[in-house]
Write a structure and sequence with these properties.
There is one protein chain. Strands 9-7-5-2-10-1-11-15-19-20 form a 10-stranded mixed β-sheet, sandwiched between helices. Strands 14, 16, 17 and 18 form a 4-stranded mixed β-sheet that branches. Strands 3-4 form a two-stranded antiparallel ribbon. It folds into 3 domains: 4-101 and 201-261, Adenylosuccinate Synthetase, subunit A, domain 1 (Adenylosuccinate Synthetase, Chain A, domain 1, 3-Layer(aba) Sandwich), CATH 3.40.440; 105-197, Adenylosuccinate Synthetase, subunit A, domain 2 (Orthogonal Bundle); 266-423, Adenylosuccinate Synthetase, Chain A, domain 3. It has 430 residues and is α/β, with parallel strands linked by helices. It has helices at residues 16-23, 76-87, 109-122, 134-142, 155-175, 183-198, 204-213, 247-250, 285-293, 312-322, 361-366, 392-405, and strands at residues 4-8, 29-32, 41-45, 48-52, 65-68, 73-74, 98-101, 105-106, 201-202, 218-221, 261-267, 270-272, 306-308, 310-311, 326-330, 340-349, 352-354, 368-375, 408-413, 421-423. Helix 3 crosses helix 4. The chain is built from 12 helices and 20 strands. The protein is globular, with a radius of gyration of 22 Å. Bound molecules: guanosine-5'-diphosphate, 6-O-phosphoryl inosine monophosphate and magnesium ion (MG). The site of magnesium ion has 6 residues, from loops.
Length: 430
């Protein structure tokens, strides 16, 4: 019995939502294990679009269990809003199909404010965060002063926890000349919604153990991408969690041996939202074309995504860092109209050729991509479901890409629709 972790191999928005939704036909349980509502996962099912931020992408299918693990940071108001939104589209969300970890940490209004205060104060040095309070919430978690889902049970405990966390936040706010954040109103607001959140709350580690024992298939759904990982990404232009596959174990409460196959989601080109190095970025007409055809606007913040050529050096690196077994290559159709397609196969820096992205941001900004060029296929691949039906030049591009990254391409996505996907190797069975 195999459990699969799905993770982004670039800077996020690779199409994780589409692939998790497609694969979840085979899974019994779908688990989010890190990140928060900075994520925006889009699924298109029979022409209906669902945009998920905190809810696992398995939620839209009947008879699947969705789990929000302890590694996720939850803005309780954002979660309730998302539940209402998805329910209004006819999707069932109840304690029968949604479980939230009692140990998950909360994002509270002062986290969002701190995110904004810092980004505004940073000027040119800003990270370009989603301004959802993700960073400040994870800081409080590691600082051991965070409020967790279980803290909503007792008024006395909640009061004490809020005193502690606000002591810290208000000292910083005062230093930055901002107003003091008052506890009483927040306490009142939290107690009002507490029953709505607590009804989903359970020990997730125990549930996962039971599911495994009963031979249920588990799909772990990553958010963001490895290049946004706080340890392995383009630091400091990263998110504040570990986005690599091994975070699925710590973020849900099971051992690393519970993950049997790591599926990396990889766009056939590259995009990035927010600031930070991006060696293959195209600030020309081709970049614009990719953005328009790929509808590259942020799901969460509607910001225009920066676009560029496929960076083989980066993906080969993230595959190694995260132990990726197979790749789902997405958005191939976006390249359909191009005369020429380029792939970065090495970098040049200080007059030398290198085969990896250096760790220092100063060097990451300096590396010059060395490209291999491919002929475009100039015909429509949208909706193709069999590898053999792809144009010859598309096959050449895919095969060369596969060879370069030294990892099997196990599926190819050719449109946003759930079933417009070419299956080469089933991650649950291989
Ligand atoms: P995620 O964050 O990794 O789940 O990705 P997003 O949902 O933020 O962004 C991916 C976007 O590409 C969404 O709008 C998807 O509907 C869309 N998409 C996914 N796969 C494909 C594909 O193969 N072709 C095209 N044209 N769009 C796709
Ligand atoms: P999904 O799951 C793309 C980026 C932000 C910013 C940096 C830090 O949809 O792939 P944060 O708010 O997390 O502190 O912002 O990370 N970022 C994403 N970029 N897709 C995402 O999620 C992202 N989540 C965060 O743009 O550069
Ligand atoms: Mg996204």
């Amino acid at each position: 019995m195999k459990n699969v972790a799905v993770i982004g191999s670039q800077w996020g928005d690779e199409g994780k939502g589409k692939i998790v939704d497609w694969l979840s036909s085979e899974a019994d349980v779908v688990v989010r294990f890190q990140g928060g509502h900075n994520a925006g996962h889009t699924l298109v099912v029979d022409g209906i679009t669902y945009k998920l931020r905190l809810l696992p992408s398995g939620i839209v299918r009947k008879n699947k269990i969705s789990i929000i693990g302890n590694g996720v940071v939850i803005d309780p108001w954002a979660l309730l809003e998302e539940i209402d939104e998805i329910k209004s589209k006819g999707i069932k969300v109840s304690i029968e199909n949604l479980i939230i970890s009692e140990s998950a940490n909360l994002i509270l209004p002062f986290h969002k404010e701190m995110d904004e205060i810092r980004e505004d104060a940073a000027g040119k040095a800003k990270i370009g965060t989603t301004r959802r309070g993700i960073g400040p919430a994870y800081e409080d978690k590691i600082g051991r002063r965070s409020i967790r889902v279980m803290d909503l049970i007792s008024k006395k405990n909640l009061n004490q926890r809020l005193e502690t966390v606000l002591l810290h936040h208000n000292a910083i706010r005062k230093g930055l000349g901002k107003n003091i954040f008052k506890k009483d109103k927040l306490m009142e607001d939290l107690l009002k919604i507490a029953p709505e959140i607590l009804k989903f709350s359970k020990p997730v580690w125990k549930k996962i153990y039971e599911f495994k024992k009963n031979k249920k298939k588990i799909l772990f759904e990553g958010a963001q991408g490895i290049l946004l990982d706080v340890d392995h990404g383009t630091y400091p232009f990263v998110t504040s969690s570990n986005t690599v596959a091994s975070a699925a174990a710590t973020g849900s409460g099971c051992g690393p041996n519970s993950i049997n196959y790591v599926l990396g989601i990889t766009k056939a080109y590259t995009t990035r939202v927010g600031e930070g190095p991006f060696p293959t970025e195209l600030k020309d007409d081709i970049g614009e074309k990719l953005g328009t055809r790929g509808k590259e606007f942020g799901t969460v913040t509607s910001r225009k995504r920066r676009c560029g050529w496929f960076d083989g050096v980066l993906v080969r690196q993230t595959i190694k860092i995260s132990g990726i077994d197979g790749i789902a290559l997405t958005k191939l159709d976006v390249l359909d109209e191009l005369d020429e397609i380029k792939m970065c196969v090495a970098y040049e820096i200080y007059g030398k050729e290198i085969d990896y992205l250096p760790a220092a941001v100063e060097d990451q900004l300096k590396v010059k991509p060395i490209y291999k060029s491919f002929k475009g296929w100039k015909s429509e691949t949208k909706g193709i479901k069999k590898f053999d039906d792809l144009p010859e030049n598309a096959k050449v591009y895919i095969k060369e890409l596969e060879k370069f990254i030294e990892t099997k391409i196990s599926s190819i996505s050719t449109s946003p629709e759930r079933n417009d996907t070419i299956l080469i190797e089933d991650p649950f069975k291989s």
